[in-house]
Amino acid sequence: MAGKPIISVERCKGCGLCIRSCPKAILEMSKTTNSQGVNYPVCIDESKCIACSFCATMCPDVAIEIEKE
């Protein structure tokens, strides 16, 4: 199954748990910040997302949803 992570930039506190939990290593911290001054994760290759939801499950702020295709 394929999908893509939808990240709520403003809810993110930049902890990086999602990045460490992704088995495909497709998340990395952005170079820009949100309104809180925090770098947030971005997906660098949506085509490799397997919709496992590990990133969403690990997020303590519920800032990630997986859109399944």
Describe the structure.
The protein is α+β, with helices and mostly antiparallel strands. The protein has helices at residues 17-21, 54-58, and strands at residues 3-7, 27-33, 39-43, 64-68. The strands form two sheets. It has a two-stranded antiparallel sheet. Strands 2-3 form a two-stranded antiparallel ribbon. A hairpin with a 5-residue loop joins strand 2 and strand 3 (39-43). The longest helix is centred in the first third of the chain and has 5 residues, at 17-21. The protein is globular. The protein starts with a strand and ends with a strand. 22% of the residues are buried. The mean pLDDT is 96.
> What distance separates the N and C termini?
7 Å
In sequence order, what are the helices and strands, one letter per element? EHEEHE
Q: Strands of the biggest beta sheet: in what spatial order?
A: 1-4
> What's the total count of β strands?
4
Helix fraction, binned, reads 10-25%
Radius of gyration using CA atoms only: 11 Å
List keywords for this structure.
69 residues; alpha+beta; two-stranded antiparallel ribbon; 2 helices; 14% helix
Describe how the helices and strands are arranged.
Layout: E1 3-7, H1 17-21, E2 27-33, E3 39-43, H2 54-58, E4 64-68
Antiparallel strand pairs: 1-4, 2-3
Short characterization:
The protein has helices at residues 17-21, 54-58; strands at residues 3-7, 27-33, 39-43, 64-68. With 69 residues, it is α+β, with helices and mostly antiparallel strands. The strands form two sheets. A two-stranded antiparallel ribbon has the order 1-4. It has a two-stranded antiparallel sheet with strand order 2-3.
